[in-house]
Amino acid sequence: MFDGLDALLLARIQFAFTVSFHFIFPSFSIGLASYLMVLEGLWLKTSKQLYLDLFKYWVKIFAIAFAMGVVSGIVMSYQFGTNWSVFSDKAGPVIGPLMAYEVLTAFFLEAGFLGVMLFGMNKVGKRLHFAATCMVALGTFISAFWILSVNSWMQTPVGHVMGANGQFLPGDSWFDIVFNPSFPYRLVHTLMATYLTTAFVVGGVGAWHLLKDRSNAHARKMFSMAMWMAVTVAPLQIFAGDMHGLNTLEHQPQKVMAMEGHYDSHPNGAPLILFGIPNSEEKRVDYAIEIPKASSLILKHDPNAPLAGLDTIPDDEEPPVGIVFWSFRIMVGIGFAMLGIGLWSLLARFRNRLYEWPGLHRAALIMAPSGFVAVIAGWITTEVGRQPYVVYGLMRTADAASPLDAPAVGASLLAFVLVYFAVFGAGTMYILRLMGKRPHTGELGAKRGDTGPIRTAGITPGPTQNPGGAEALPTDKEDV
Question: For this UniProt entry, which segments traverse the membrane (predicted)?
């Protein structure tokens, strides 16, 4: 079935599929953890039951999304050994410790406090429970910190030395490796993306329930909070994205060339190509709709500034222009659509019609999954735009793969596709069912199973007989 395919291509497809599927959940759970922290903090400050109800409503959804994110992420580490063993061997001395730090800091922190956050509301004090929620939110941030540091080093590798056996070895300072040139921009841009993703999911759920019942106080509050986040963070995200683009132009110019569709250099100012069809064979963008000199204005802050094109890059170092060109436009287009929804909600708020405009609510409902599409499109732009390198400028992707035959990689890819859609599809459907339930006063939140822990050691004694033959009463459940 896979004999005629390329093992390298299949390995890349497998990693792209699993990492894209995986990041759907962290892109939601990172922002949702912070939202839960805000809700519980507002409840402690105001003592309003509404905030506690919303916390309990969303904590159930968080628990499932977090669990699916952890499980889908475990697969990623195995692929480093199965499909990318050469990369693991060569880059392991640098990226291995960084990924270990994520486990030692983020995972341990989350594991220590997640149970208290989910099940300890009535078992510990309010402040201690809030501290646990804060620690879980902090853990999600730390996890993003280390993973983005690893990925950013692969994009802008610094602070290392080359060993005699061709390995990347840490240099004199780990600080240079962790805080590599692209890391601050990538961290800010990604975290804002997770907050916007969560905001539009929350806003979409609130809009769904407002369309059914405009008087629902819980739906009103979640929709209002989500729209404040949208109108505040969306413009900041556009600004952060622009700064990230300037950093990319400095360190990965061919990625920006592919994003802009600049096959040719422009010595007197480059146009901004809004839409078109990249034609890599003819080295042009067909049917281009462009704004003269606008690209130079954005990237160089000078409409007449020269911009180099892909004609200055060897053909074997060019990234796939068509994929990068369109994924970038999808990401940017969704970003501006988010800003539009935020401004629309601001107008509705000023006119005291935030909960009365069904058109706004329908638009917010349609935009509910937009954050997921945007983050996946952003990662495609980042990763495909780095090609043909896995460690930019130093190690090609073709040289990083394991020596496997196509059938071996293809079989595992097929298994991943079937299992992921079955397991995580079912989990996603359950999350949607929870979101479809009307938020109300007296939400129960996450709770343990009623049967208690499973006993795997020893035998639970059954009813005993009294000396007189009468059966004794069963031991009280709480005393076992």
Answer: 15-36, 57-78, 98-121, 128-148, 192-211, 223-240, 323-347, 359-380, 413-432
